Automatic annotation (TrEMBL):
<feature type="coiled-coil region">
    <location>
        <begin position="166"/>
        <end position="200"/>
    </location>
</feature>
<keyword id="KW-0175">Coiled coil</keyword>
<protein>
    <submittedName>
        <fullName>Uncharacterized protein LOC112692474</fullName>
    </submittedName>
</protein>
<dbReference type="InterPro" id="IPR012337">
    <property type="entry name" value="RNaseH-like_sf"/>
</dbReference>
Amino acid sequence: MSGSNSGVQKRIMSVAPNAPFVHCCAHNLNLVISDAAKITQVANHFFATVQAIFNFFSSSAPRWATLAFSEDFACKIRKKVLKKICPTRWEARHESVSALKQRYIDVLKSLINISLISKKSDERSEAQSLQKKMESFQFVLMLSVWENILRPLHGVSKMLQRDMNLQNARDRLKNVYYLINELRNNYEDIVNNAKSLCLRWRLPVTYTEPRQIYAKKTF
């Protein structure tokens, strides 16, 4: 709608140059999520890793095929595939995070297998690097945190794109606001859930705080 060449915004501005442009409610929601996440370096690193995992498998047909069918390749049962990170539609990132969480073990097994048997040194190196990042407790914790945050946001964003009156839109957004505040208050439950996932996936539960870098004061 806001395309610079032939979008609705461009057409209205050609007739009324002083007409103000306001993003739709769903777009505003995406902008809020985007700005909130950009200030967190840990979140930026997490989504960069999720995108790197997708790029690693999608850039090779053999790697993508083994992951698409996983252990059921002989039965031709296609499993849920990984999704690309969308740079603009933050609510759509739920599909990327949810798919990776569901296929976590399959992805990790594929990375381990590639790092052991691949004849390409660069492929082995990249697989080992991604494996190390995925096996960290911090990554599993962020996977759990963002899946819980993006799930309700994804749902309400889809609803805001349909025909809806102002009262219903307000109620939906208010419910999501309360849900996210509840997640903040129940952060320990999310941590415990991440620990349970690590135990189920047989991963070490160790969390290392990032080293703080302080600027030297000069007088």
